[in-house]
Amino acid sequence: MKRWMIAVVLVLFACQGAFGGQTPPKKKPASKPKSRPVAVAPSAQPKPPFEAYAVADAVDGVVLEGQNMHLRWPQASLTKLMLAAVVVDKIERGELRLGDSITATKNAQGMGGTQVFLKAGETFTLDELMTAAMVESANDAAYAIAEHVAGSADGFVALMNRKARALGMTDSEFHCVHGLPPSAGGSENLTSCNDMIRLAREALQHPQILNWTSIEQTTFRNGTLVITNKNKLVGRVPGVDGLKTGYTRRAGFNIVATGANGGRRLIVVVLGSPESRIRDAFAAEKFHEHMQVQPAAHGHAVERTASGG
After folding, report:
1. Residue 34 has what pLDDT?
2. Most-buried pick from 16, 183, 191, 248 (CB within 10 A)?
3. Is 172 a catalytic residue?
4. Under CATH, which number does the domain 52-291 receive?
5. Which pTM does this prediction carry?
6. Segments of the chain with pLDDT less than 50
């Protein structure tokens, strides 16, 4: 009996050695797949500082350089340069005087964007309101002027379009007097670098427009409201002395600037810049290149209003 039990035990040990006691052979680690070169996307091209631009001689209108000269682009508050052209025409014909009194209406009071906060019934002179419109880019001032001059804003828009046709501004159209974005279903005021050169040259024929747009800072409403030129190149870039800027989300940052050095006067137009500082730096560089003046170092406040000047 003992021999039988010993034999069973020996058999069991033998089975364990044959089947369960040995460590199974180690598997070879799976080889790592060969790495493939990762395709690197080409670096994104830097966004240009404009959608269109031009540099022109103010005397003969010859374009010295530019890009997308006839691209039709939202004007924003460049619109007010045409406002000034229409108003000055009427002043020179004796139909208006700078000292004329203008009473703000409820329509003018309701303007958005940049404004001088007109209240219905307030009265200011044409000169005061034009200064507010051209320096501060006040939309309410522009609207009050338009209603006074033409009887209605729509009537003044008709005068703007007539003036544009007379100047050969074939890329431009006007639908409002201030340049604010249109309401749903409305149309934008459009222009091009080519047309803005024409309008700027016309404006320069009338010293009063340059007088307004060369003001760096002044006051409104009997000195209680300080207004500052939206054109930050004025007084900061040697020789630059006027004209207009504009901003809406759709338009980006626009400028039509003029400057003189010695016997030469230039017009620089920039449309659709992504930031005011980029627009201003680009325009300043063009003045430097073509007038051989060194742009002064300065900071630029980003325009934050719906019209933005």
Report:
1. 52
2. 191
3. no
4. 3.40.710.10
5. 0.81
6. 1-25, 35, 40, 293-308
